[in-house]
Specification:
With about 100 residues, this protein is an all-alpha fold. Helices cover about 65% and strands about 0% of the residues. It has 4 helices and no strands.
Length: about 100
């Protein structure tokens, strides 16, 4: 038994010494993704420009904020009523198919 242990210990240490500490995270390189992207953009020399039409300026409105809030609340209520009506129609259609 001691003889087997005496032979097994050096064999285990020899096999452990043959391995390497490299793992997949150290072998993966980010430049494999970045280099092709940079190569695709090499011929582009255009610099960004300002588009004056893209800027939106808001002008003050003459509508009373209370009226605007009331109109928004009415729109929300109408949307809720439309959704309820649609759901009721869908339930009726399901009942007809059964």
């Amino acid at each position: 038994m001691k003889f087997r242990l005496a032979l097994a210990a050096p064999a285990i240490l020899a096999l452990a010494a043959c391995g390497s500490a490299d793992d997949a995270s150290t072998e993966a390189e980010a430049d494999t993704v970045e280099i092709p992207a940079n190569e695709a953009l090499e011929g582009i020399d255009d610099a960004p420009v300002i588009d004056a039409d893209a800027t939106v300026t808001t002008e003050p409105s003459d509508v009373d904020p209370a009226e605007e809030a009331a109109a928004e609340a009415q729109n929300i209520e109408d949307a809720g009523n439309n959704a309820a009506d649609t759901a009721a129609e869908a339930m009726d259609a399901m009942d007809e198919t059964e």
